[in-house]
Amino acid sequence: xxxxxxxxxxxxxxxxxxxxxxxxxxxxxxxxxxxxxxxxxxxxxxxxxxxxxxxxxxxxxxxxxxxxxxxxxxxxxxxxxxxxxxxxxxxxxxxxxxxxxxxxxxxxxxxxxxxxxxxxxxxxxxxxxxxxxxxxxxxxxxxxxxxxxxxxxxxxxxxxxxxxxxxxxxxxxxxxxxxxxxxxxxxxxxxxxxxxxxxxxxxx
Length: 204
Prior knowledge:
It is a single chain. With 204 residues, this protein is α+β, with helices and mostly antiparallel strands. It has five helices and eight strands; from the N terminus they run αβββαβαββαββα. Helix 3 (99-107) packs across helix 5. The chain is globular, with a radius of gyration of 16 Å. The mean pLDDT is 95.
């Protein structure tokens, strides 16, 4: 019988291949994970190219970010941990890097959120069935202090649990879902919306 961990490896590798083809995983950027137990997740190891993942580059970690198999987790593992702790029904989380997210969040240097309104693509987010809505996506400052950043993100999401994703300025975004398919849909939709907003701002 194939284990939950082996299935997670398969899904993460497929997601890595797909997102790499969309230019959302340049170099060795980003990290992807899936919940595989009450206090355990499968997550990409530090320094792995997400479009060229092998099963050996996906490790096991507990939800405090501690390696369970001796492999080295990404410094950003704590952000995956907080998502799974805050949302018991969430089973996949994706962190992508794109030109649109990087440029847009730098253009919006004084803003702590981007408001997305009127887009048909908003219906790709969970529990949204109309374009006639506004969705606030928070922007957090980039830092190497992961405990500090994790605390900031956790505080925000605890107060706004309906938030489908968040951005890190000049860095990338995090999106999640009840399964890998939903997490990919959220991330891909948000990347299209960010690209649209970037073009609009550059034209005005």
